[in-house]
Amino acid sequence: MFDSPKRNHFTIIFERLAAVLAFFAVFFINSLQEYGWEIFRPGFYTELVRTALNGGFRSALMFLAFFVFVIVCMFLSYRYWLKTYFYIESTDFIYKRNTLFKVDSRLPVQNIATVNVERNIFERFVGTAKVKIDLNSSRTASKTDFKFVLKREDALSLKEALLSIKARQSADAANPENLSPEASSVSAAPSEVRRRLITFTAAEAFRHKLLSFPIIQSVISVMLIVVLPMLKIRSDSSMNRMLFLLLIAVGGSVLSIVKGAFDLGNYTVEQDSKMLYINCGLLNKRNYAFERGKINAVIINEPVLSRLFGLCSVSLAVVGFGNEKNETTHLSLTVKKKRAIEIISECVPDFVCKAQSVRAHPFSLFVSVLRAIFWGAATMLLGFFYNYAYIMAAAVFVLLLIGAVTEFAGKYYAADENIIYYSGGIFNRSQGMFKYENIQDVRIKTNIFLRKANLGRMSFSILSAAAMKKHKTGLFDISLFDKAADRVVEAEDKSSLLL
Question: What's this model's pTM, rounded to 2 decimal places?
């Protein structure tokens, strides 16, 4: 089906013009209210030109320029649809775009990291779906490499075709003696029966978003919106302004939770011997598929509200997973911690660290307390601008002091022959598990004072859009980090296989 050049579905023209068309619709409605059905008469535009020549140049020109802009955008989107092709040739994926900026790409299917399918409300209405293809590439780890809009059946067929080729190539690589011209063809690998790992209802998705809400950041925002101005001015107009800002903040938070619940509703995780399959979304349907070998880290998330109920969630850092929409691949939404550990052991057992974890050195607590004192004293400087600033300073100090104790209590580190494990975070705690071969660089940081106590911090990064950041441990014995750094150097670097 995909062995010859194939275009996107023509509705991609409208998807690419979504923002322009929305603005055009608003402009059109306003124009209709002002000029009525006159805008459909050719003489209306003749009159516009005459008005421009007689002095009303600016308004008439803006009206005409907007329509020209819309027409140009539509023409460019049409050209994009007309001149963009893709197809599969043997075990290569071919992408061609013969527009003003030409693109001609040929890439081995084996270098595709993930093939995902999603459907927004418009696509569900017209019967199409979007295929998102991500590569094993550090240069494009924060965005999707290729997007195609196809009929729903064609989108699913493209996904299965690419996955079957990847499965065939993996099988051939594992059994090179079985290679033959027939075996190396694009014949589909036999499909395995998928086993459902876990399912979350819409209500459980809502609970996950609610308990993952950053409550501490929200409290600080409320303090900045309400408390800080109250220390300076107490007029009725100022109070009304503060209440309006507070309403916007609360309303935005509620909408964010509800939208997130719709995006994660009916979250289902399935697996076979090699692949993981994730389906979710009530309105915007999404479907993710990737190999276990593309997982670079497993992270247990424990936001402050979840911890109050003994709950946590599990997320995966996947190589090549595009993150332009802040997408996160959850292995599990909010569940009891015991259940989360069972899911990790069942689905990704190679990320379980078998070494005994150790707590951070007590000196970490001393450093955190000093930080609380510093910021509390810095807040006192607000006294030059606000009345009763010492109240804010005391609140900041107490909050940071509680955070210092909480942060110290949650800092652990462990490393066995294959995995580095560390936990951290102040109120929103997380536990990360990383393979040595997936770590890009390791840095052990210390100073003249810490060196005397043989203490230091380790930071490292991995190749993943969702977890590209530097991961930093607490203060531990440097000898623990030296062993881990040696293992990172000795491990086979999987990034050598990436584009």
Answer: 0.71
